[in-house]
Amino acid sequence: MAEYAIELKGITKRFPGVVANNNITFSVRKGEIHALAGENGAGKSTLMNILFGLLVPDEGQIIINGKEEKFSSPRDSNRAGIGMVHQHFMLIPKLSVMENVIIGQEPGTSLKIDRKKAVEEVQAISDKYELNIDVTKKVGELSVPEQQRVEIIKVLYRQADILIFDEPTAVLPPHLIDEFCDILLSLKEKGKTIIFISHKLAEVMKVSDHVTVIRRGEVIGTRAICDTSIDEITRMMVGHSVDTGRKSRADIKPGKEVLSIKDLHYTNVEGNEKLKGLDLSVHEGEIVGIAGVDGNGQEEMEKCILGLFKPDSGQILFNGEDMIGHTVKERRDMGLGYVAEDRQKESLVLQYSVAYNLILGQHYLPAYSKHGFWLKKDAINENAEKLAKDYDIRLANIQVAAGTLSGGNQQKIVIAREANNDPKLYVAIQPTRGLDIGASDSVQDTLIRLRNENKAVLLISMELDEILAVSDKIAVIFDGKIVAVVDAATADKESLGYLMLGSKKGGNE
């Protein structure tokens, strides 16, 4: 009987201008959780898409349970007992959980689905693996974590013994990540073999038995989790050590107040008051981080600052001028730089070239156009070449579509573009969400550099470690108000946690 559930030997996959996987060889033991770590664009997803049958390798062997397989579609890999839970779900909101799960494998006859049997079978899987889903509910009524569990049920319904999870925690809020890790461990206990793609090394260390690191399409090495550390894995991923603690910064005193929010109130279309007299101040030469449990008014505050929501009352002063009533463009012309949470929907045009994405919203400026109409292609390309080099945007050339790049490189486009426009206030929303440790470090260094250049920076992040590492001050938001402002250099997670839940215990106001 084969010791390994999966053996990949010499897997190579080439795309125009890039070798995504170069002679990759590694093995996964039966019944283990094997993490696959690496920077965005390292080749992890390409490799797993080959294993799942979405891509065909140019060279190499795939051996499943001791038998060589050749996959040309996911149906082939399904037959071999492999299932994949993708980062972006493939569900139909208007259908029930049961209907989503059984698509393509409906019980009954060709004329009539046995719906009762289907409900019983799907509910039995949910119960067996403690996924706690009512399979009669419409998928559109479920939360994101619940939808992820539906994807797991889909894979289990097809009797997969090997499960691939592609960045599964990227879609989860921090307080639900531990719960998901427990699901992985439960699946392992029930005999499943799991490949876990992640750049969040704390999760890798918590749930995995082994980790294989890929860098720029090649295997750097495999380690038993009990014999390695986050520092070693980080060095393997990025090629050098990365300081994951508090970032060093220039010793400067904050300057004049750039952003002043006073007694801000906002009620959403459902009639719920989301901001209840919020006050906030950000000065030149400082980073103010917003810490809070998701849903306490962060999004509404952000949208009011940007001009996407109109507050009920209060003031938003930018260098002393009230911005309420100004358009988004007018605010950007005043010196507001903005890194949106969803880079693909809000910050990039994926079919446009990298060069054009690097001037989005700035194309009318004299540097890039004549009379605000005729684009200066040479200047646009020169700008792109410089920023790609300065911000380590990894690409074949500046004319490739932004949508062809990894998530980390897409985010670097946004970070570079907004920083390059000499912002007076730089608002960064979840700037490292979905990024590996190397790309996250680069983004955080940019925020620190802007602060050192006397810019005002407002950071909204669900990652408390990031808030502590980057901020000068931390403003804690709870129930639509800033309930405390603390010194980030002396703050600790425990006291911040109490404040984020509405308690003053442990606070250091």
Could you explain how this protein is built, in words?
The chain has 509 residues and is of the alpha/beta class. It has 2 domains: 4-238, Rossmann fold (3-Layer(aba) Sandwich), CATH 3.40.50; 257-335 and 422-500, P-loop containing nucleotide triphosphate hydrolases (Rossmann fold). The chain is built from 17 helices and 22 strands. The strands form 5 sheets. The chain has a 6-stranded mixed beta sheet with strand order 6-7-8-3-9-10, with helices on both faces. Strands 16-19-20-13-21-22 form a 6-stranded mixed beta sheet, sandwiched between helices. The longest helix is centred in the last third of the chain and has 16 residues, at 437-452. The protein is globular and about 70 Å long. The model has no long low-confidence stretch (mean pLDDT 88).
Task: Provide keyphrases for this structure.
509 residues; Rossmann fold; alpha/beta; 6-stranded mixed beta sheet; 22 strands; single chain; 2 domains; 26% strand
Task: Describe the structure concisely.
This protein is an alpha/beta fold. Helices cover 31% and strands 26% of the residues.
